[in-house]
Design brief:
The protein contains 17 helices and 16 strands. The strands form three sheets. The chain has a seven-stranded mixed β-sheet with strand order 10-11-12-9-8-13-14, sandwiched between helices. α13 links the parallel β11 and β12. The longest helix has 27 residues.
Length: 469
């Protein structure tokens, strides 16, 4: 398999040598084809994704995946001439006369490693950014979504030659071989544990990386925020896609006493019941991706229950839920801090609600852990929101909502620290896959002629001027 990957990279490098800088019209056509690719047979995409999960609503796939790819491609087509244009920058007096500008060059051959939870969006939105930058791209999707991968490979091959875009399929051994190749840039989306391995492999070859990782995205709830207003965004953010979202709210820090935490928990479960009546056969509720992942979630809840935490769970048939892998929406009240549910990314429809005495205590909780990929704060007070923003650091933030910062393609999406580094979406994605190349053009005469050895009085004057210029 590594030889096949090497062959594809060699073909893309040869194509890059023939056309080092794709014209604006070519890039726009690439993006038009990508937009068409996800829009021409929506039913085929939704069916493939649902088959891979066991069940996922076509509405979720259209809203959270296909439309996002179409928007990314459309925005890039519309704004690409502005993004690509060389940017003039001022020339300081000591460098005059001359002209200074920044050119944006394609980095080259890009490797995209995408996960299973959003198998279309997290492969093809980065592809849109790389195509906008003029790069050639290989995609390695997760082996847990084979039907979606096969459809993606077939559709991309229909619209793009393999020396421009290609898909490499296979399991963990293929992923390891893929990330050990000499790409010009790698974008990896996945767990922090695997991200560290990718970073080590890339460091050996000095390959620049974009790491989109996970972590535990906290929700800080101020006492002034009504429980009824809170339930819908919390339940939507936690239970959409069966909770299998990297920026889903991972746990709630409810400022107030245990009664406040319980009131929030009960409201979230009541909202889940309105979202998903008759859970085991509900066509709108997404199944957990595999039996192994389902059993991991069972173990998280049972450990918390055994430790004395209160567990609220939507009514369901346990046997049928296991068979269909529809894990019931669950809220765990005040789990002890040392449990797996309190230390590991949950990545499923389980929401711990933890009571904390003050907003500052909630902030201290967040600051005492790795920087999260997303942070959510619910408050009617601008001062409280600013307090949280000023004293914490996260990849992104939604105020009085969940996950909505991802809906704005003008906002960069990325982590910080253990939740990743680098970012994409919109112009930030174009910049991620571009090299900002500095260009300085002198006039026929340049002031360095006055500052060359042997150094006389004028050279000493220029050296002193350099501190003020």
């Amino acid at each position: 398999m590594s030889q096949s990957i090497e062959r594809l990279i060699a073909a893309q490098r040869a194509a890059l040598a023939r056309q080092p800088r794709r014209a604006l019209s070519d890039r726009r056509e690439d993006l038009r084809r990508l937009q068409a690719l996800v829009s021409e047979d929506i039913d085929a995409w939704t069916a493939a994704v649902s088959a891979d999960f066991g069940n996922r609503s076509p509405v979720e796939t259209q809203l959270l995946e296909l439309s996002g790819v179409a928007r990314a491609a459309r925005q890039a087509r519309r704004e690409l001439s502005h993004w690509m244009a060389p940017r003039p920058v001022p020339t300081p007096l000591l460098a005059a006369p001359g002209r200074s500008r920044i050119r944006y060059e394609p980095k080259g051959v890009v490797g995209i490693v995408s996960p299973w939870n959003y198998p279309v969006q997290l492969a093809l939105v980065p592809l849109a950014a790389a195509l906008a930058a003029g790069c050639r791209v290989l995609i390695k999707p997760s082996e847990l979504t084979p039907r979606t991968n096969a459809l993606m490979a077939e559709r991309l091959a229909r619209h793009f030659p393999e020396d421009q875009v290609a898909v490499v399929q296979g399991g963990p051994e293929v992923a390891a071989a893929f990330t050990n190749q000499a790409f010009d840039h790698i974008l990896f989306t996945g767990s922090t544990q695997v991200g560290r391995k990718v970073a080590r492999a890339a460091a050996e070859k000095l390959i620049p990386l974009t790491l989109e990782l996970g972590g535990k995205s906290p929700v800080i709830v101020d006492p002034d925020y009504g429980v009824d207003d809170l339930a819908h965004p919390l339940a939507w953010g936690r239970f959409t896609n069966g909770g299998q979202t990297c920026v889903a709210p991972d746990h709630v820090l409810a400022v107030g006493g245990p009664e406040r935490a319980r009131a929030i928990a009960e409201a979230v479960i009541a909202q889940a019941a309105r979202f998903y009546p008759d859970l085991s056969a509900n066509p709108d509720y997404t199944s957990i991706i595999s039996p192994r992942h389902y059993e991991r979630l069972v173990a998280l809840v049972e450990e918390a229950r055994a430790a004395g935490a209160q567990v609220l769970q939507l009514s369901h048939d346990a046997g049928l839920s296991r068979q269909t892998r529809r894990f019931a929406p669950t809220v765990v009240i005040n789990p002890p801090p040392g449990l797996a549910i309190s230390t590991e990314e949950i990545f499923g429809p389980i929401l711990p609600v933890i009571s904390v005495p003050t907003v500052q205590a909630a902030i201290d909780h967040v600051r005492g852990r790795d920087h999260p990929l997303a942070l959510y704060v619910f408050s009617r007070s601008r001062a409280v929101v600013d307090q949280v923003l000023d004293q914490t650091l996260s990849g992104g933030v939604t105020v009085n909502g969940t996950m909505l910062h991802l809906a704005n393609d003008n906002l960069p999406f990325g982590g910080v620290g253990a939740s990743g580094y680098g970012a994409y979406h919109g112009q930030r994605g174009f910049l991620e896959f571009s090299h900002a190349r500095s260009v300085f053009a002198t006039g026929r005469w340049h002031s360095t002629r006055l500052a060359a050895a042997p150094f006389g009085k004028r050279a000493h004057q220029i050296a002193r001027m350099a501190f003020k210029a």
